[in-house]
């Protein structure tokens, strides 16, 4: 990360830098966007660059990619105390920032809206006279938005062994999510 990228933060009046950082982190966590009207003494182009820089910096701090010392070095245009306070602001909201990042990354993924399932016993097929295999059919209603018209229906048929493998993978995914949330 280029340390010159953070020169835009020096354009925010020193007395308002921490307020600006807190507002930007609030926005990153789903709050109201930062308004240039509140920081009108800063040129608009530098304001938008500073906003993006604070979001990037807070994200890297929350994901533990930057230490306090690295943050102070990156923010060399500001006083050491201000740089440390910016680090502390992001560090103290680490869980919120992570949660927001996860929510943002999955918002365009398919969401399960409804499901149904049934089990049938296949006793024979055109190739095997005595099959006796249980089959599970899942009917999934998915969408990428909350709109009812966007719902896609998907049907999947699986054997008992395939269902067992699916359940194992889902348990692994659940453990990974639990591990990620506790980090």
Descriptive notes:
- The structure is a single chain.
- The chain has 183 residues and is of the alpha+beta class.
- It folds into 2 domains: 3-106, no CATH class; 111-182, no CATH class.
- 48% of the residues lie in helices and 17% in strands.
- It is built from 6 helices and 3 strands; from the N terminus they run H-H-H-H-H-E-E-E-H.
- It has helices at residues 17-28, 44-62, 68-74, 80-92, 94-106, 160-182; strands spanning 111-122, 133-143, 152-159.
- The chain has a 3-stranded antiparallel sheet with strand order 1-2-3.
- A hairpin with an 8-residue loop joins strand 2 (133-143) and strand 3 (152-159).
- It is elongated and about 80 Å long.
- The mean pLDDT is 86.
Percent range for β-strand residues: 15-25%
The helix count comes to 6
**Shape type:** elongated
Number of domains: 2
User: Order of strands across the widest beta sheet?
Assistant: 1-2-3
The number of distinct β-strands equals: 3
Rg, please? 25 Å
**For the terminal residues, how far apart are their CA atoms?**
24 Å
Roughly what is the average pLDDT, rounded to an integer? 86
Question: Which ranges are low-confidence, i.e. pLDDT below 50, for 5 or more consecutive residues?
Answer: none
Give the class from helix and strand content and strand pairing: alpha+beta
Largest sheet: 3 strands, antiparallel
Topology:
Layout: H1 17-28, H2 44-62, H3 68-74, H4 80-92, H5 94-106, E1 111-122, E2 133-143, E3 152-159, H6 160-182
Antiparallel strand pairs: 1-2, 2-3
């Amino acid at each position: 990360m280029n340390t010159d990228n953070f020169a835009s933060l020096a354009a925010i009046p020193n007395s308002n830098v921490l307020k600006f950082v807190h507002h930007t982190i609030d926005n990153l966590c789903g709050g109201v966007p930062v308004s240039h009207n509140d920081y009108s003494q800063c040129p608009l182009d530098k304001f938008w660059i500073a906003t993006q820089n604070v979001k990037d910096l807070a994200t890297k701090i929350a994901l533990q990619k930057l230490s306090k010392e690295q943050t102070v070095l990156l923010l060399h245009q500001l006083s050491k105390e201000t740089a440390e306070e910016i680090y502390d602001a992001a560090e103290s909201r680490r869980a919120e920032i992570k949660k927001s990042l996860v929510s943002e990354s999955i918002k365009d993924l398919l969401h399960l809206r409804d499901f149904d399932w049934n089990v049938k016993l296949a006793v024979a097929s055109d190739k095997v006279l005595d099959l006796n295999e249980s089959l599970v059919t899942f009917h999934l209603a998915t969408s990428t938005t909350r709109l009812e018209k966007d719902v896609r229906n998907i049907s999947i048929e699986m054997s008992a062994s395939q269902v067992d493998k699916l359940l194992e993978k889902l348990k692994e995914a659940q453990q990974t999510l639990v591990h990620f949330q506790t980090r």
